[in-house]
Hints:
This protein is α+β, with helices and mostly antiparallel strands. It folds into four domains: about 1-40 and about 330-400, Up-down Bundle (Multidrug efflux transporter AcrB transmembrane fold), CATH 1.20.1640.10; about 50-135, 2-Layer Sandwich (Alpha-Beta Plaits), CATH 3.30.70; about 140-185 and about 275-330, Alpha-Beta Plaits (2-Layer Sandwich); about 200-270, 2-Layer Sandwich (Multidrug efflux transporter AcrB TolC docking domain, DN and DC subdomains). It has helices at about 1-15, 15-35, 60-75, 105-120, 150-170, 190-195, 200-210, 240-245, 260-265, 300-315, 330-360, 360-385, 390-400, and strands spanning about 40, 50-55, 80-90, 95-100, 130-135, 140-150, 175-180, 185-190, 215-220, 225-235, 250, 255, 265-270, 280, 285-295, 320-330, 390. The radius of gyration is 31 Å and the shape is elongated. The two termini are about 25 Å apart.
Amino acid sequence: MSRNRARLSDVSIARPVLAWVIMFALIVFGSVALGRLGVSYMPDVDFPVLSVSVNWEGAAPEIMEAEIVDRLERRLITVEGLKEMTSGVSQGSASITLEFTIDRNIDAALQEVQTAISRLEMPTDVRPPTVRKSNPEESPIMWLGLYGEIPERDLFVLADNMILDRLQLLDGVGEVFVGGDMERNLRVWADNRKLKEYQLTILDVEQALLNDHVEGAAGYLENTQTERNLRVLGEAASPESIRNIRINSRGGAPIYFSDIRLRDVARVDDGLNDHRRITRVDGKRGISIGIRKQIGANTVAVGDRVIAGVDAIQKELPEGITLQVNFDSTRFVKEAVDETQFTLLLSAILTALVCWFFLGNFHSTLNVILSIPTSIIGTFLILYFLDFTLNLFTLLGLSL
């Protein structure tokens, strides 16, 4: 190793022009690599941690523990490489955190966990459990706020029809979602007096909805030459279709020639599900919209595109409706990159002045000046080929 260093030093001293050319080449190619590097706040690292989330609307914590968590724990304890398992329950939801040994392939562990959960029978009204990896890159980079002098349900419809898809199509955007558990919801409010008038019960109303509000496969239609798939198109497409559903049974017995409609015994409201969280933007009720970027995408560039998209959408929104950026993490990344660039420039200038003052030689000063950007900018070339991103840790290493 010492011989190689001596030979490299001898060549650089004996042929300074060649050394300068190599330095300039590293600076040029490093600058090109810098423009292509992904920029993010944290590195793209998959921690050996998985989280399992389960929602069962209305279930008490004791029921969640007995019917969901205990059964999941007995199934997941057999997963290979599991180091620690932590569970938590609350009203209507439960979460299980799985920590694996550092040498366990987290993608393989994810598949094994999903397979174990799929073999477990859950209550019929429990949503399928979701399994997620722990990766700081998956955190939202921006939060938007939408508010105005209209009901929340109309804000949600406006966001769903006009905003989410527009932002999702932006280059580098991975996911756009509405914060919280806000979903469109149709509610059927039965009138007890009218039910008695028609000699019906709430079970008759429920059965009518189950029978007529359904869509699914109905088999095949075959002949000697073709085969066609058949589907039952019975799912109501609008609140008015729900109101027009015919109630054809009373206590399980059919009602022949019945003309009793759901609207005759109940009220159908088109709104949102129960509020568990409240979002306020500038003191007004509104909804929040989260933005996640694609893994490896340039955080700053994605943030700039989202801001430009928000400005374009705002011009098309109805009067009195405002869409704005409430939280932008990309500005911290941008400030860190700008600070590193300023530190690089300042250190190069100060080093040049010190060398010129003590050495008094232009060629020696030029060699020192070129060595600083060569060592730093040349590193970007290595980061690019290693598929790393420019993040808090790589910037910290460059600054040191």
